[in-house]
Amino acid sequence: MFITHKGKVMKNKRNQKNIIWKILLIVFSIVLVICLIIIGIQKYQQKKQQEYYEALLENAGSQPQATEEVPEPEKEEAPDILKSLGIEIPEKDIDFAALQEENSDVYAWIYVPGTNVDYPVLQHPTDDAYYLEHNMDGSKGLPGCIYSESVNTKDFTDPNTVLYGHNMKNGSMFASLHNFEDQQVFEENPYFYIYTEDKTYVYEIFAAYKYNAIHLIYNFDLTNPEIFQNYLDQIFEIRDMSANIRQDVTVNADNHIVTLSTCVSGEKNMRYLVQGVLLNE
Fold first, then answer.
1. Which of 7, 151, 159, 207 gets the most CB atoms within 10 Å of its CB?
2. pLDDT, tens digit, 9 for 90 and up, residues 88-141
3. Is the distance from CB of 175 to CB of 164 less than 8 angstroms?
């Protein structure tokens, strides 16, 4: 069959297009496989870390066997304010020595009823962002840890101690703080607890709301009572429909608060904050 020069050119162009499409298909397939492998590895790492934290939680109260009988430590006497409010501190016989053998940066444990938050709290001595992308066992990656920055002391005596945690898709770390967007959950779970070697701190939750991602401590000098009071007044004036505020809780510049901070899905420049005021000063 006789083929003109023009026909040969068109056939060559079609062949070139077919080759290009095949190359693109191969490249796309390779990229897809690589992406799936990366996602698979991330999922596996997150699952292993979740299992690690679950084991840590299960064993947190396990004490090493003693060769001699030792008297049980006396239970911490609840302050009068807790008694008057009928607050019973959930018992957690946390073995901080064992936790600190795992990681010496552990200094507290936080438990937030109404959520999945039941984790150790860490603070890295030199790198404030370290636990944003490192796990308690030192491995790099998600879900990271619940942590504070070195700008905060570890005895919760600052006007505002900020604890950070990722908003993980599997509901771990601080993701379930978003449960407090539900007014019923907010109303039914008014307290959270921070355990240390020396004391259990009881906080009454007075606010849960979305806020911009500014650094709270660097942007508000809360050591100044006037600035602190103004900051608190602004919180109680929030009128966002998604916010939950306890207007009947008294908080002033003489108090100490803790802010729990996590991300908001799809809103890069926003954070979800849950704030509590210390009751047993």
1. 207
2. 999 998 999 999 999 999 999 999 999 999 999 999 999 999 999 999 999 999
3. no
Domain ranges, residue 211: 88-278
Question: Considering the domain boundaries, does residue 202 fall inside one?
Answer: yes
pLDDT at residue number 25:
73
Rg (CA), the chain: 26
60 contacts 110 by C-beta, under 8 angstroms: no
The residue among 5 and 117 whose pLDDT is bigger is 117
Number of structural domains, the chain?
2
Q: Where do we find the tokens 């009454």?
A: 204
**Residues noted as catalytic:** 166, 263
Q: Is the peptide bond before 64 cis (omega within 30 degrees of 0)?
A: no
Claim to verify: residue 161 and residue 254 sit in the same structural domain: yes
What span, in angstroms and rounded, lies between the C-alpha atoms of 148 and 221?
17
**pTM: predicted TM-score of the whole model, two decimal places:** 0.80
